[in-house]
Amino acid sequence: MAPIKRGALAEEIVSYIREQILEGEMKPGEKIDQDAIGEFLDVSRSPIREALVVLGQEGLVVITPRRGAFVAEISPDDVIDHYELFGLVSGRVAAMAAESFTDEQLAELQGIHDRFAASSNDDHFKLNEEFHQLVNSVAPRRTRWLLRNLQRSIPSGFFETTPDWDAQAVRGHGEIVEAILARDVDAARRAMETHLHDAGVAAVEGLTAKGFWETEDD
Amino acid sequence: MAPIKRGALAEEIVSYIREQILEGEMKPGEKIDQDAIGEFLDVSRSPIREALVVLGQEGLVVITPRRGAFVAEISPDDVIDHYELFGLVSGRVAAMAAESFTDEQLAELQGIHDRFAASSNDDHFKLNEEFHQLVNSVAPRRTRWLLRNLQRSIPSGFFETTPDWDAQAVRGHGEIVEAILARDVDAARRAMETHLHDAGVAAVEGLTAKGFWETEDD
DNA sequence: GTTTTGGATTTTGTATTTAATATTTCTTAC
DNA sequence: GTAAGAAATATTAAATACAAAATCCAAAAC
Questions:
Q1: Distance CA A62, CA A69 (A)
Q2: Is the CB of B3 under 7 A from strand D?
Q3: How many CB atoms lie within 10 A of CB A102?
Q4: CA nearest to nucleotide C19 C1': residue
Q5: CA of B89 to C1' of D28 (A)
Q6: Given B65, B82, B145, which is nearest A59 (Cβ)?
Q7: What gap in Å lies between CA A21 and CA A73, rounded to an integer?
Q8: What's the rounded Cα separation, in Å, for the pair A86 and A96?
Q9: Are A121 and A136 a contacting pair, CB within 8 Å?
Q10: How do the pLDDT tens digits run along chain B, 218 residues long?
Q11: Contacting residues of A for B141, CB less than 8 Å apart
């Protein structure tokens, strides 16, 4: 691993292990060998331990005292459930946005969405982030914190793996924008909930395509 | 600190620091001195560090690389917001319970509530936990996990500090029980949301009574 | 008198070491 | 041949050691 700025090593390792898990390199139930990671990344076990604690809190890793850390057993139902929760909170925030967005924010939302709808694949991810970022900006602090946490412990970037997720996302965002512009609080919530429900289904598909659920049998 | 079973030291320290924060011993914004805690508890910095990472993920502590760990700046609005989120998720689960509880579960819920309503102060906490535990048992895995997390990073046990929280809680639970027994999905959700909203207000009162918001000025 | 700068001190982040527990393997008894 | 138990091995959790960065404090410049 390239020499990382001192003081953020643990975070770097978190990203590494998280990616390994979400990309299916480490299978659910598999034991996470601290020494192996340390040798591979050329770091000591101290930051690795801290990284595993973070991932444990995120729910991607299960730590059993004196036994070690294991990749969490995640089922399709867990992913669906997770997105459902994500949608529940996001829906609440979308409702807030429909109520409290200023005219400037409405215009900006429309602008982002227009670019999103017209964008090439490469910008999709960025514009998608901008879209949700703007909506979530009206949420109170703790809610924003929870949304960040819910987003982190999840596979993202399905624009590549799920074929027509692009079109579906554009449609979903469109309905959300429409509802917020109309200041229809309930419709905004429902549209956001639906959008994230769909995203959950897409996530399961994406993970399936990557062979995420296939168990290690050796 | 009494000698703790090896392998759970970090968790023990998490509890200790969390209590220190929620009891107002450590003030928001205050720096958390790792060496001081280590000396006081007679442990090395390794498990303390892991504890701080956990608390950082919970949002009770803010870790700044190379600067150290600080008690998070929590405002009354944050606590209200937190309980609102807690209520949002719990409400969803209450709705599930209203839909899917078996007759046995309904009877058990009624039983717990009856004992709760009649109980002395000492049992209130335990019966309150049993109540929510039973309702939450119908939630899918990830939702239960989130509820546990939301509950942990929050001050609990306001039965002592907020004078008539007892009565209010009994009333709140009563409405929830009624709605679930009637299998009224929407009423169950609303009742649970209201209950946790009230709990949030009580929490702020309790924290105020403890002088939680008073800043350290030395 | 205030601000800036440079070194001393403290404290963090990571590495290394030590001690304890879990796991595996091998032996022995049935 | 299988099962139980004991020794060997491996791996974790915690303690200690060390290096780098941040903070503190004092002296000097403005």
A1: 6
A2: no
A3: 9
A4: B6
A5: 62
A6: B145
A7: 11
A8: 15
A9: no
A10: 334 456 689 999 999 999 999 888 999 999 999 999 999 999 999 999 999 999 999 999 999 999 999 999 999 999 999 999 999 999 999 999 999 999 999 999 999 999 999 887 778 888 999 999 999 999 999 999 999 999 988 777 665 667 788 889 999 999 999 999 999 999 999 999 999 999 999 999 888 888 888 876 54
A11: 75, 77-78, 81
A97-110: pLDDT as tens digits? 999 999 999 999 99
Burial bucket for residue A64 (CB in 10 Å: 0-12, 13-18, 19+) = exposed
Decide if B77 and A10 are in contact by the 8 Å CB cutoff: no
| pLDDT greater than 90 at residue A7 | no
Rounded to an integer, what distance in angstroms lies between the CA atom of residue B59 and that of residue B53?
Answer: 10
pLDDT tens digits along A163-207: 788 889 999 999 999 999 999 999 999 999 999 999 999 999 888
Q: What is the DSSP string of B83-96?
A: HHHHHHHHHHHHHH
Two tokens at B55? Answer: 């608390």
Helix locations, B24-140, DSSP H: 34-41, 45-58, 76-100, 103-118, 121-136
Helices in A42-164 by DSSP H: which ranges? Answer: 45-58, 76-100, 103-118, 121-136, 141-152
Task: For residue A10, list chain B residues with Cβ-Cβ distance below 8 A.
Answer: 53
pLDDT of residue A159: 58
Q: Hey, what domains does chain B have and what are their CATH numbers?
A: 9-71 (1.10.10.10), 76-209 (1.20.120.530)
| Helix orientation angle between B165-181 and B121-136, rounded to the nearest 10 degrees | 30
Contacts of B89 in chain A (CB under 8 A): 85, 88
Under an 8 Å CB criterion, which residues of B touch A?
6-8, 10, 46, 49-50, 53-54, 57-59, 65-66, 75, 77-78, 81-82, 84-85, 88-89, 92, 140-143, 145-146, 149
| pLDDT value of residue A89 | 98
